[in-house]
# Entry
Amino acid sequence: MDQRDPGSSPTLRVIDEPLREIGGRGSRSTWSSITEIVQHRQLLGRLVNREIRARYKNSTLGVVWSLMRPLAQLVIYYVAIGQFLGAARNVPDFAIFVFTGLTIWSLFSEIVSSGTGSILANAGLIKKVYLPREIFPLAAVGGALFNFVVQFLVLVVATIVLGRLPLSPNLLYLPLAIVLMVVLGTAIALVLSAVNVYLRDVEHLIDIFLMVFFWASPIVYSVTFVNEALQGSWIEQVYLANPVTLAVLGMQKAMWVAGVNDPSQFWPDDLGLRMLIALGVSLVALFLAQRVFSRLQGNFAQEL
Amino acid sequence: MNITETAVNTEAIISVRDASKRFVLHKDKSIKDRILYFRSREKSRSDFWALRNISLEVEQGQTLGLIGHNGSGKSTLLKLIGGIIDPTSGAVLRRGRVAALLELGAGFHPDLSGRANVYINAAILGLSTAETDLVFDDIVEFSGIGEFIETQVKFYSSGMYVRLAFAVAVHSDPDLLLVDEVLAVGDEPFQQKCMNKIREFQREGRTIVLVSHSAEQVADVCTRAVVLDAGEIVHDGDVGEGIRVLREGYERDRVAAAAKERASADAAEQLAGAVDILAVDVTTADGKAAGAEPIAPGSSLTFTIRARVNSPVDWITGFTLQSMLGQTIYYLNTKGLELETPTAPGDYAISFTLPDVNFGRERLIISAGAETGDGVTIAQLQNAGHLDFAPDPTGGGVVQFAATGAINSVERVS
# Structure
């Protein structure tokens, strides 16, 4: 209604951008997804920040709580498995051993479990604004990495206090183990977060899956026990093919000085090579996971 | 501004090409259901086409109003344009920065403070931290949140939510603003503020797509209207015409519902039917039936109620003119005019004459009724007809005038 709008004639804004197809029936190329995420990196940072801050917003102790769980686990495993079941007798520095394994394990399990729920948890946003949806599982990864860093600092302090500060070339295993867990965890989180939208059972399934993987990796028992029991059979090779096992072993090799120096401990041959292969496989899995995710994400807004 | 003028800048900012959207409705959700009825799977799902073959070009600087009934697909179309859902077939093309205001408080985290949420929301809309710092004070100022900006958002009222969300959206410097019905939540001064902001955006040449149920709001700001009905575009272009198309759709539904109601009430009315209202005729001064073409302001109208008295009763009769939204614009009855109605059985024509009608509403619905002297309804005739009035060329509202204006310079009073 012209007569009610006596404004000056509109000045034309300049948008130097061609018309671009949006959405495009669900699936985008991996490359365009990556560039989109890079464009939104500031938002990603804010979402990670939000995740961390919101989690401890109303608690007095705040971020200290992210330490309580692994510390409680440490005490339980140290007492029950180390002392009562006697695992500590054959494992030097059992406390550091367990905490090393727990630290890398909780990185993986937190990426997987909070990543799986991330799309559902952000349903409100997904239904209202367009964002590259990969950003939500990635924000969960960021939150998990933050917790990992806090735990890792505690681990470092513990090694200093006990005079076992690991300063050796074995430290190179550390970044490899972390990257391996982040890549693999992200791949799993991407697929499961998308599937979880359509089939909510996944959330419950994942708890069981994580429990099995926890005991299938040498976190609270030494891999030496496995070697003694399986005597290098093909089952042991299967056990050692598990990337989580490899990452835990790599982490122990880097941080658990007493074990590395103890000749009675068993270490698989070519641990570094095994980890690199696992990393390669995980990278392929991550690529495939992104394809699956981008195929499924088109219908998120209406399924949530 | 109207369509022909804005057509000068032919740069499209949104291009919807033959887009359709299908929703699949599953009736079974649990695994048990899926296994049990695996064979009849096809039966347990039904398709619903929310949009069918929509093609739409929106040029830069236009303000487009999407209107339609509930469930006509306007919000779905807006979500398609926003990229929130993908079309089942066809394509949606777009360029520039978009800010979408769909439902309330998109992306607010209840446990975080207003300030933290502003930064997150601005990042979602594509603003960097440095850019947000620059406009932060303006956002707080515009939203009127004041000191509550440091309070957790979960303690906000729904009005505060919307105000903050709208404030962030309009300060994110969008090329395209998508607004879905959210403004209805704010109080009147805030709605006014939003409308002013939208007009400012228009002057700055930004593009706005607005979904609204309020025909007045659309008529007020939009330069173009698209009317959707059952997922299809039934009108695209002039705003006034669009609103008329929409209202015709409303009236069709209303008349159908009223007819149904009348049919069921008929039996009961026969018993109490001491008086029947048969029809209401409206004629202009020259005796022609009004309603064929819009009535010019200043015409004189005669309303004739045709009533039949079946048994002797003391009664009064009159008519009402209502807007499309059911608001009574005018009513008149025999009691007001102190006319004595005959009580003996027979057919009567009761005429009322209104000189110089100057209704500003484009369409009014006529209803007539009869009551006893104590106000008990005897007969009613809802939707006896409608009248179209010529639109006001100068002002707007419920009535219209042959208005004039003048501008004089006056001495400054110090």
